[in-house]
Amino acid sequence: MTTERFRGATQAEIDDLLSGDRARVKRAFDRVPRAELSWALSTEAGEAALAHAFELMPGYYTAGRFDSPVLVRYRVERDSASAVERDVTFGPTDCVVLAVDSNRTPDLAVTMDALSFVEAATGTTRGMELLMRGDLKVQGNVQIAIRMEAYFGLAPAGANR
Amino acid sequence: MTAGPAVVVVGAGPAGLAAAHCLAAWGVEVLVLERRTHAPVHPQATMVNVRTLEILRFLGLTELVMEQSTTLESSARVTFLTALAGSELGRIEIVPTSEKLMRLAAQSPTLPVICPQRRLQQLLAATLGPSADLRTACEVTAVRTTGDRVCVDYMEAGRSRRIEPRYVILADGMHSALRDQVGIETRVDPPLGRLLDIHFTADLQALTRKRSSVLYWVLDPAVRGVLITVSPDDGDWLLEIPLPSGVEADRVGQDALALLRRAVGADVAITPRGVRTWTMGSTLAQSWSDPTSHVFAVGDCAHTFPPTGGFGMNTGIQDAHNLAWKIAGVLGGWANSALLESYTGERRPVAQVNARQSEENAREMWALLAQAEPLVGDSAAPRLLGSAIERQRPHFDFAGQALGFRYGSPSVISDVVDYTPRVAPGERAPHFWLEDSAGRRISTLDCSVRGYALFTGAVAERDWSDAVGYVHVGGGAPIGLYAVTVDSPVGAELRDRTGAMTRAYGLSGATAVLVRPDGHTCAVLPGIDPHGELISAVAAFTSRGFAAEEVHLP
C-alpha cells in the first residue's frame, strides 16, 4: 500500500488506521478527513483493517457478562464495496469471531457503516450516539444491544460517575 | 427609569436557574435572588427527562450535565423484589425491544439521564453567563407591581434593598409567600400520603450488577418502598418509603439504618446521610401570573405533584423555557406583551396532566404494594403479580408524556408511553438530523434556538426567502429560513439524507412549517401566498400562543 492510495492521509496515519491498536486508530480517525477515511475503508486494505478489528475483539472482551453464549451478527457496510460480515459469539468465558453461518439465527443483528464501526470500536462514539444518529441499526435482543460496549471496556462516557 | 436587570428571578432552584439561563441566552440581564447560601444536600429529584435534556442542550450544557449524570441506557429497567439482595418478583424493561430502542434513539438529539437535583443546581449556578447575576443570602420580602415595572424589596447582608425590574419570576417553591402578595392563588388538592426519604451511601454494585435497574422496588411488608439510583458509581442512594396513615414518620425515620438494612437485605456497610419526611400531593396555582402579566410563577411555586414519574423538576425547567423567550421577545420589541398571557394557558394544562398522571402512578403503585403484601414468600408471587407490575409501565416509560404534550388542545397528550412525532400546531416539532454543506449534523430542534424557524423544501426556497426577507425588513421577529433538500445541499441548504424529515414536515411542494423559538410548531403554511401567510403567522405568534384554542391560519 502507498500513501498515494489514501489521498488525504500520510503513510503514518494510514499505518495507524490499519494498526488495530485502539489508540492509534483513534489518532488516525481524529486527523484524517471523514471522506478519506470512508474511501480508505472501502479499499482492500480497508477491508483487511476491518477484518483485523474483528480478529482483535476477543482480546478486548470482558468475560463474565453472559451465563450462556449469545450470537451477534455484524454487518459493516462500505461505500462502493461489499460489506464485511462476521458472527461473534459472546460466551461466559470468551468471545469467538467466525465467518457468517447463514444457518444460524443470531440473537442480535447489528448493521452499521464502516466509519461508525471504527468509531464504536475505538470508543470515539458511543453506540447510543450512533443509534441516535441513525448510523447504527439493531434487530433482536435489546439487552445485548444496549450493553454491548460494556463487554469491550467501552462503557458509556456518561456512566463514569 | 430605574437602572438594573430587566428581570429578577426569586429562587435559585432548577426552575429559577433555568429561567435565568434561558433569559441570558437571549441577552436579557437577569438577577437571581436566593435566600440560601448553598444547594440542599438531599438529592431530591433525580430524573432529567428527554425534553429537559433538549433544553439543557440548547443552553450548551449537555456535556457538563453528562459529566454529572448516570446514563440510563445501561439501566433502563425497574425491578421489583423482596429486598435488593432478595428474590425478584418482576421487572419492567423500559426498552423491551430493539425496535423501541431505535425509535427512542431517533426521537431526540438527547437521552434522559439520572442527575441529582443538587448537582444540576450547582451546575446551573456555576455556568450562568455574564448577563445573569446570582446573589445568595438574599431574602425577598415584598413584590408588588407599579405600572409597567415591579418593585422588589429584599434583604442582603442585613440591609434592606429595592430594585425595580420589568418582570419578576417567582421560583421560590411551593411555600412561596410572594405568590399571595401579587394575587396568584393556589389550589391545594387533598394529600395522597406521606413519604419518608432516607439518603444513604453504600457500595451496592455487587448486588445490582446483574440487575442494572434505575429503580428497585422492595415489596417487603416490613419495608415497602423504592431504592433510587442517585449516583450508583459513588454509592449514592435514596430509600423512599410511603408511610401508611397512622404511622408516625419521625418514629420510623429514627430507625433509618434498620430500614435500610432490611431493604438491602445483605451485610454491606451502609451510612445514612439524611432523613426527611414530606407530604405527597398536588398543588396548582390558578393563574401563573399576576393580573398585569409582570410577575410569573414557575416550578414548584406554580405546581407540585407526587414524585411518581419524576415530572416535578422537569416541568419546572420546561415552564422556564416556555416563559423566557416570550419575555425576551417583549423586551426586545419583537413580541407583543399579550404573548405573555399565553404562559399560563400553555403550561398550566401540561402541569395538570403531569399531576394527574403522577397521582395515577402513585395509586397504581399503592395497589401493587397492597396486592404484593400477602404474596411475598410465595413462590407463585412473580406469576400472580405479573400483570399488576406491567400496569406500572406508564410510571416509568413515558416518552409520550415527556415529548408529546400539545399546547392549545383539550387533549394535552394522546399517549403516556408512546411518543408519535407529528408536525401539528402546539406540539414540539419533531427532531430529525439534517446536514449542512460541510457535513455537520444539525437537529431540526437546533434551528429554532435563537428565533422562529421556517422550514421549506428546496423547490419553494426562493418564495419563502423573499417572505422572510420582508419580515426582516419590517423589523419583525428573529426568523431563520431552513431550506431542506434530499440531494447534496447547495449554499445554505440543509440535507435530509433519508428524506424522512421532508416527508414528516410535508416539504415536497410549496409548503413551509413555522416553528417557535421554544421548538413548538406554530403552523403549516401552504405556500399559496408566502408573503401573506408568513406575515400573518408571525404577527399571530408574536402576540399570542396556543392558550385559548388551537390557532388556525390560512
Structure, explained:
The complex is a heterodimer of chains A (161) and B (554). With 161 residues, chain A is an alpha+beta fold. Helices cover 39% and strands 21% of the residues of chain A. In chain A, helix 1 packs across helix 2 (22-31). The relative contact order of chain A is 0.14. With 554 residues, chain B is α/β, with parallel strands linked by helices. In chain B, a hairpin with a 6-residue loop joins strand 5 (77-81) and strand 6. At the A-B interface, helix 6, strand 5 and helix 7 of A face strand 4 and helix 4 of B.
Structural class of chain A: alpha+beta
Q: Mean pLDDT across all residues of chain A, rounded? A: 83
**What is the molecular shape of chain B?**
globular
- Most extensive chain contact? A-B, 25 and 32 residues
Strand numbers in spatial order across the main sheet of chain B: 6-5-15-16-17-14-18
Across the major sheet of chain A, the strand order is 3-2-1-4-5
Residues in helix, % of chain A: 25-40%
Mean pLDDT, all residues of chain B = 92
Rg of Cα set of chain B: 24 Å
Largest sheet of chain B: 7 strands, mixed
Q: Major beta sheet of chain A, specifics?
A: 5 strands, mixed
Envelope shape of chain A: globular
Approximate helicity band of chain B: 25-40%
Rg of chain A, alpha carbons: 15 Å
